[in-house]
Design a protein that fits this description.
By secondary structure, the chain is α+β, with helices and mostly antiparallel strands. The protein folds into 3 domains: 20-281, 3-Layer(aba) Sandwich (Rossmann fold); 297-387, Immunoglobulins (Immunoglobulin-like), CATH 2.60.40.10; 394-451, no CATH class. Helix content is 20%, strand content 29%. The chain is built from 8 helices and 24 strands. It has helices spanning 83-87, 90-99, 128-152, 169-180, 200-203, 207-213, 228-240, 256-269; strands at residues 2-8, 37-45, 50-58, 70-74, 107-111, 162-167, 187-191, 216-222, 246-250, 287-288, 300-301, 306-312, 319-323, 325-328, 330-331, 336-340, 347-355, 358-360, 367-370, 373-380, 397-405, 410-418, 441-443, 449-451. An 8-stranded mixed β-sheet has the order 2-3-5-4-6-7-8-9, sandwiched between helices. Strands 13, 14, 17, 18, 19 and 20 form a 6-stranded antiparallel β-sheet that branches. Strand 19 (367-370) and strand 20 form a beta hairpin. The longest helix is centred in the N-terminal third of the chain and has 25 residues, at 128-152. The chain is globular and about 90 Å long. It comes from Hymenobacter swuensis DY53.
């Protein structure tokens, strides 16, 4: 039996909406539609001391008599200014969006983010000189490329009309440079951002400033991407500090399937009014819960803590979710049962699945003694919970101690927490005795316990 649990982040008003995804054929040319144009340009870089290259997409109907906002679109560690063109077909995606009336006309600049004399993706692309060049590109972008674009093309040269996004290494650059230069960029997107991404505390040290100046912050990644923890840690920090953003997770790995979908969705937001309240609806999947068993993708948690339970059980006639109140699951043609819950309050929730009247625990999630019996448990995170998370601070120790009880005429056990520095200290300590509740376990011998 395969069981999966998904926790959703969709507001009540948007509960019936399907999370947005690119439709079939979004990256294929449409016959008869107007097309934009890709041009190659060279610009002088004082930062690197050479002439550098970039590509520029101009939209259908482009005119030098109009002024346009600009999206700077960055590549990954193994690419160059042509990577998006070769693997992502951005001009086709954008042409189709223009044909559907979903974009505000904009320029898209695709530069080489490896700011060094020989900026080709050759040799050891992970070499320290090449990695350092990706960081150097911040200066090249701000002091050389952007001024050149604003001088050469009819742009709207304000932060409100300038966006920065990228994939992988370029996603890390976008978050680093965009959030680090909010006077230059109001729209920032990271697609599958790489480990070059700064820790969130450095990305957004001034939360109030970020809330005030950001028009949109987009973070997306595939659920099977090994770099997912980079995006997840950034989202968790932003969520805790109430910085509005999109955290878009979808089925996929570290590839253009995910990145093209990111561009398709992110570009539709740009240079338009943003409904901040609707941002939590922009996701397909959630984050695996902390209470999952190892390697279990579900349960998953989404921004507003709604939940979807999925169970592969084609031979079962009825499935319910008992989560304090009961929900009926609906079976599809493949035998997968699904239900969406209401928004769940933060903290630990006991639950069980009821298969044809039989309550069972979820094998994909940790179990606890609750509801008067063994049951599954799902931890719903809340804001301001970092105090309860494991952090890089001095740690005490938890010790198991056995003692003989004259009252019960038996050996019993207890756990003792000693604070950091206890072993080296000669001080005497006060003691707190911390007692459990009614769902305790009764010892029946070494290594044996049963609930009472």
């Amino acid at each position: 039996m395969l069981l999966s649990l998904v926790l959703l982040g969709i507001s009540t008003a948007a509960a019936q909406k399907t999370p947005p995804e690119a439709p079939r054929g979004f990256d294929q040319p449409t016959a008869g539609s107007a097309t934009g144009r890709i041009d190659s340009l060279s610009y002088p870089s004082k930062t690197v001391g050479t002439v550098r290259k970039a590509l520029v997409y101009t939209p259908p109907g482009y005119s030098t008599r109009k002024k346009y906002p600009v999206l700077y679109l960055l590549h990954g560690i193994g690419g160059d200014e042509k990577e998006w063109l070769k693997g992502g077909r951005p001009q086709v995606i954008l042409d189709n969006l223009y044909a559907a009336g979903k974009l505000r006309p904009m320029l898209v600049v695709m530069p080489n983010g490896r700011a060094m004399q020989d900026d080709r993706a050759v040799g050891n692309i992970y070499g320290p000189d090449k990695v350092a060049a990706f960081a150097t590109f911040e200066k090249d972008l701000l002091t050389d490329l952007i001024p050149f674009i604003d001088k050469t093309y009819p742009t709207l040269p304000t932060r409100e009309n300038r966006a920065l996004a990228g994939l992988s290494m370029g996603g890390g650059q976008s978050l680093n440079f965009g959030l680090g230069n909010l006077n230059t960029f109001a729209w920032v997107g990271g697609f599958s951002s790489a480990p070059n991404t700064k820790p969130p505390e450095q990305l957004v040290p001034d939360v109030a400033k970020a809330k005030k100046q950001l028009r949109l912050l987009w973070i997306s990644c595939g659920d099977q991407d090994g770099l997912l923890p980079v995006s997840q840690r950034t989202h968790e920090y932003l969520y805790e500090h109430r910085v509005p953003h999109v955290y878009y997770l979808e089925a996929g790995g570290h590839d253009f399937k995910v990145w093209k979908n990111g561009l398709y969705l992110f570009s539709q937001f740009l240079f338009k009014p943003v409904d901040v309240a609707a941002l939590p609806t922009y996701t397909v999947l959630g984050t695996p819960a902390a209470t999952n068993v190892r390697n279990a993708n579900y349960p998953q948690i989404r921004p507003d803590n709604r939940a979807v339970f999925r169970l592969k059980a084609p031979g079962v006639g009825q499935v319910q979710l008992d989560l304090g109140r009961k929900y009926d699951l609906v079976k599809d043609s493949s035998g997968t049962w699904t239900v969406t819950t209401d928004t769940l309050s933060r903290g630990l929730h006991y639950y069980s699945l009821v298969l044809d009247g039989l309550p069972v625990a979820d094998p994909a999630s940790a179990t606890f003694y609750g509801m008067g019996r063994m049951a599954s448990g799902i931890e719903i995170p809340g804001r301001e919970t970092r105090f309860y998370a494991l952090q890089d601070v001095p740690h005490g120790e938890v010790r198991l101690k056995r003692f003989f009880s004259k009252v019960t005429n038996s050996w019993r056990q207890c756990y003792v927490y000693t604070p950091p520095g206890y072993e080296a200290s000669t001080a005497n300590y006060p003691v707190l005795y911390l007692l459990h509740g009614g769902a305790k376990t009764k010892q029946a011998g070494p290594g044996k316990a049963k609930p009472i």
